Predict the structure of Tetratricopeptide repeat protein.
Amino acid sequence: MHEESRTAASRRRFAEEARSERPDLSLLCLLLGAEADPELGDDEIDAAQIELDRLAGQLPYRPGGAREWAAALAELLGARCGFLGTPADYQRLESSLLHEVLRRRRGLPILLSVVWIEVARRAGAPVYGVALPGHFVVGFGAREEQVLTDPFAGGRILTGEDAQELVAGASGGTVTPSMLTPTDPLNIVLRILNNIRAWAAARPERSDVALWAVELSLLLPAHPARLRYERAQLLVQRGDFLTGAAELETYADVVTTVEPTTADRVRDQARAARAMLN
């Protein structure tokens, strides 16, 4: 299949899955990875899903309550399989791509958490993601028996004090009950895309990565309106002045009622982008 039509087909599949009744987190992450890796086709996506199934098959059958599930995942994925993170992983785009994390067994906290969630879910565990400020972890069990684990640390079970230290180190704040609630799959995917955009923002030569990350974010049912402005800026930066100018004007029309000064500034940017063609 031609690369452009393959990308379009992958994006259609991503958008359809994101709008389905029960979005498949692992599939969305793998379709996201296809944007970065043109070699990641249907067969490779299927192989990654099979690997998650294989790992789930190595867990003990219903080991017990939340703490026993957490310990079983830490033993399998952390101790035996060697999934964990290091500071150097924050510098690699591969650390945000599920198929690469499965291959390298290294990744960012949120991608390692996706591995934990998807393996545990397949085995029937009461598992979910927990978006602590600055550090994503995994939760097991209902609120009254909740056990948190840190896949970045190989699945270490967190005490309340451990969780407090993570939050204090990231934001200077304290743990609140709202921080410990399950994060739905679409919010996890949006956070992954935000991480990729941040990675690309620090590398101006990778505006191609920033652009596809923004465009996938825009395919999610709920996303910040400002992403349209970011996409327009990237298009202009990459030399697509006419499309970028049109996108800037569209964004200006959206915000003109609530932020007229911003709308005027964005329209000036659109005129400047068109002037670059002269």
Summary: The chain has a mean pLDDT of 93. Residues 185-201 form the longest helix (17 residues). The radius of gyration is 20 Å. The first strand starts at residue 127 and ends at 132.
